[in-house]
Write a structure and sequence with these properties.
mainly alpha; 0% strand
């Protein structure tokens, strides 16, 4: 249970860019759980946040060996390999990430970058076009969801308004009846 809290804390610290503290916590965790994929993955993310790209690559590769079907591992390994100018390797990992989650527009965008860096311009354009379609679809879905949520909210407000009005009418009738 303590280890789960530690992992959760590391995730929070990396979001807050408190990398030194996160590094200490995750290294302690990995010392006790050396085969834990999440620990290796998070250590890679912490190193990436610290600009320690080679160490990030090593940890993310380690995590990918432990669990090849981990989307976040494959995606982040692809991103770090792009930063290290290893576009062909990045392409392979980003393709694996997309095989796991074909709807990931972020992975699609990074794949387009990896292809472009390799001079595969036409294929890169195709991937970026798919990325743009995914983004547009997501924007439309979000807009529809917001419109629906607003409609439900308005209905609830209207129901409460009618309920309050019925209560007020009932109260007024009761008071009027008692006054007679």
């Amino acid at each position: 249970k303590n280890d789960l809290a530690r992992i959760s804390l590391v995730k929070s610290l990396t979001v807050l860019v408190e990398n030194d503290e996160a590094l200490s916590l995750i290294q302690d965790y990995i010392a006790r759980n050396p085969r834990d994929v999440e620990g290796s993955y998070l250590l890679g993310i912490v190193y990436r946040g610290m600009g320690r790209d080679a160490e990030a690559e090593n940890q993310l590769r380690r995590a990918a060996k432990m669990q090849p079907a981990h989307f976040d591992v494959q995606y982040n390994l692809g991103v770090i390999l792009l930063r290290l100018n290893k576009a062909a390797e990045a392409e392979a990992h980003l393709r694996r990430a997309l095989a796991i989650n074909p709807e990931s527009s972020e992975a699609r965008f990074q794949l387009g970058n990896a292809l472009r860096k390799q001079g595969k311009t036409e294929v890169a354009r195709e991937e970026i076009a798919v990325f743009k379609q995914q983004r547009e679809q997501t924007a439309q879905e979000n807009s529809a969801a917001m419109t629906q949520a607003a409609g439900v909210f308005n209905e609830q407000v209207e129901d409460e308004r009618h309920s309050d009005r019925r209560k007020l009418d009932s109260f007024t009738r009761t008071v009027s009846h008692e006054m007679r």
